[in-house]
Structure formats: C-alpha cells, structure tokens
Design goal:
164 residues; alpha/beta; Rossmann fold; globular
C-alpha cells in the first residue's frame, strides 16, 4: 500500500489566542474550506516530536507556521525546504526538539513513512506575545497570499515532478 493514496497533508501550527501565532491555523482553515479531494488539513497547537505522526504516511506535507526573524516585513510569506533549517538541528532532550530536528529524527527512525516532499510555508509575524484572538493587520492580510503559496506548492506536487 502506498503512502495514503498519494495524499497531501497541510498542517497549520499555532495558538488561536496568541495574536499572530494563529496565522498558520488560519491558512490551514482557508485550504480546508476549498474542499480539495486529495488534501487533508490539520490545525494544531503542537511542535517538536508531535509533528512526526501527523506527517507520517503522507506522500507530501506542507507545514504552515508563524516565524519571527525580524529580517522581513511582517506579513511576508516564505517557503522553505527542510534543509533550510539544518543549522537549527540539535542534539537535545526530547521535550526541547524543534520541528527541523523532529523531521530529521522521523526520517532517521523510519524514512519509509515520512513524506517524500515536505515544505514549510512561514509567515513573518509581528506579535507572538499578546494574548488576543486578533492578529495584527499585516499578518491578517497575509493569510490570502500564504494560502496562495500553499496552492502553488500543491500544484507543484501534482505536476510532472510529483506525479500526483
């Protein structure tokens, strides 16, 4: 049996009550609302090793999350490959594992169940500290462009290279 019939999972990460941290959730909800037949969506407030079972078994995975680098204008949408985060992979206790380390660990444990292609859609944020169900205006305005970035990746997965 193949990887979930060549399905894709889009996982929005974040907290719905921590201002801009909700952006990944909102983007995943926007993709879910499209009702794409070959795409599963999840909205989760997890990180680290908890991501492994969520992507396991899928041929393709897209993780959407807030990022705070202060290198880009808030609302900037960025697309990364797992290798983009190699410099953040660390040998740390399990409760301190970041997403990049978790993905690497999952691949080392059983690469056969990990996605063939995994991408990150990150939205540069402004405020991750304020308890609020409202995002800042620039980040809220980035939900549409981030949704379009996810749709672009889905089209890429379905194209000749992805054979989906």
């Amino acid at each position: 049996m193949g990887k979930l019939a060549d399905r894709t999972v889009v996982i929005g990460l974040g907290s719905p009550i921590m201002c801009d941290d909700a952006v990944g959730l909102k983007v995943s909800e926007a993709i879910e609302a499209l009702g794409l037949p070959d795409v599963d969506t999840l909205q989760e407030a997890v990180g680290g090793l908890d991501i492994i079972p969520m992507v396991s078994g899928y041929r393709f995975a897209i993780i959407v999350d807030a990022i705070l680098t202060r290198e880009y204008e808030p609302g900037t949408v960025l697309i990364f490959e797992p290798e983009s985060f190699d410099c953040t992979i660390a040998d740390v206790p399990a409760h301190d594992v970041n997403l990049a380390t978790a993905i690497r660990m999952g691949s080392e444990m059983d690469n056969s169940v990990m996605p063939e292609i995994l991408r990150f859609v990150a939205i540069e944020v402004e405020d991750l500290q304020t308890m609020s169900e409202e995002m800042t205006p620039k980040v809220a305005a980035a939900v549409g462009p981030a949704k379009n970035a996810v749709l672009h990746l889905l089209a890429e997965f379905r194209g000749p290279a992805g054979n989906c």
